[in-house]
Each structure stands twice: as C-alpha cells, then as structure tokens.
Amino acid sequence: MALRKIVQEGDPVLGKKCRPITEINDHIKMVLDDMIDTLRDSGGIGLAAPQVGILRRMVVIELDDVLYELINPEFVETEGDQFEIEACLSVPDLMGRVHRPARVKVRAQNREGEWKEYEGTDLLARAFCHELDHLDGILYTSKAEELYDHDPEEDEE
Ligand code: CO
Questions:
Q1: 105 to each of 18, 74, 117, how far by Cα in Å?
Q2: How far is ligand 1, taken at its centre, from the CA of residue 19, in Å?
Q3: Smallest Cα–Cα separation from 118: which of 79, 154, 73?
Q4: Catalytic positions, please?
Q5: What is the pLDDT of residues 13-50, one digit of tens each?
Q6: Distance from the CA of 134 to the center of ligand 1, in angstroms?
Q7: Structural contact between residues 56 and 18, judged by C-beta atoms closer than 8 angstroms
C-alpha cells in the first residue's frame, strides 16, 4: 500500500489540462493502485490523477462498494439537472452547491485497455462530473453557486 500526498488548492498542477494515456503500462497501473489506496485512506469518493501531481487522464471513484477505474474518460451523454453539495479532497475547508447533469453516461478504458460505458445518476453522476473536470484543470469551486465553510473533523461523527 502506497499513499500519495494529495495536492491542495493553490498548487498550479490543479489548473492544468491532463494529457491522454497512450500506453497503460506498469507505471500507470502503479499510479492507479496508489490512487486507490490514497482514496480509501482519505475517506473520499473520488480522486483524479492531478490531485496526486500526475497530469494524465485517469480517475478512481468508489461508491457503494463499486470501484471505477477510468482511464481516458469522456462523456457520452448527459441529461437533466441536479443542484447538490460537493466537496473535494484538494479543498478540505469548503463545500459547495453545484449544478450538474442528473444523469451521465461516461466511456473510459479499464486497466486492460478495454473501453467500457458507465452510467450514473445522483451522487455517482456528480462524482463522474467532478472528477472529469479535474482532468481539464477545473475545480468545482469555480462552478459552485454557493460555497460554505467545511470542517472535515465533523465528518468523523
Ligand atoms: Co475534487
């Protein structure tokens, strides 16, 4: 198990557009494994590669005991609207309300290189949108219409 340091807001790496992954080699798989360890250790739902300082298009999300490893993810369809609270491991002292599609369909490669489609509604749709935004250097705080102070310690209760 290898934990990576989560880059915090203010670091320019979080504002950069990530490059596609052309070869899913051992290094990429190792970073993915570290991202999963780091995500699980953090108690969050999703983590994008730039959040561990890697400017490549990959994301991990874990929700309801399902792990999504998304390499080169892109939207296939989006539909509807939701306006719910988000938080980000790179912005631990804030939370905010963001408009997102109510349902999204995403395609991505898995670690075997196979393209798969994933559909999400509610929180999963928000997680897909939030994490894919990270790959384009976009933090949810730039889209949030309402921001609130957030004390991560309170989540322990
Ligand atoms: Co985030």
A1: 21, 9, 7
A2: 18
A3: 73
A4: 131
A5: 999 999 999 999 999 999 999 999 999 999 999 999 99
A6: 7
A7: yes
- CA of residue 47 to ligand 1 center, whole Å: 6
Tokens representing 68? 């999504």
Residue 97: other Cβ atoms inside 10 A: 16
pLDDT 10s digits, 83-120: 999 999 999 999 999 999 999 999 999 999 999 999 99
Distance in angstroms (rounded) separating the CA atoms of residues 5 and 65: 23
Q: What are the structural domains of the chain?
A: 12-155 (3.90.45.10)
Task: Supply angle C-alpha 50, 110, 135, rounded to 5.
Answer: 20
Mention every residue, 6+ apart, whose C-beta is less than 8 A from residue 119: 103, 104, 105, 106
Residue pair 126/112 in contact (Cβ under 8 Å)? The answer is: no
DSSP symbols for 58-126:
EEEEEETTEEEEEEEEEEEEEES-EEEEEEETTEEEEEEEEEE-SEEEEEEE-TTS-EEEEEEEHHHHH
State the distance from the centre of ligand 1 to the C-alpha of 127, rounded, in angstroms: 9
Q: How does pLDDT run across 64-81, given as a tens digit for each residue?
A: 999 999 999 999 999 999
Q: 86 and 94 in contact (C-beta within 8 Å)?
A: no
